[in-house]
Amino acid sequence: MKNQDPMSPMDNQNFVSQLSQFSSLEQLITISEGVDGFNGKLKYLNEGVDYIATLLTYAGYLPGEEGEEGAEGTTEGEEIPATVDEPAGA
Known about the structure:
mainly alpha
């Protein structure tokens, strides 16, 4: 609109068409930003699940990779010490 020629204005149909395209683009950008935020949260969730699985493997509750056994001397129901820190920037 800023560069529109005042002596030859755009017809209403073209104006409405461009306006709807800008609106659609704005909605797509908002959706994209939401998906990016969701992906970031999933990354932290996956890291947490991997950490817990590592603790359980070390404590002997889950088998290690390629047939390795977990740590010896643990019993079922034994408490596993763990701390969960907030991810940076959360």
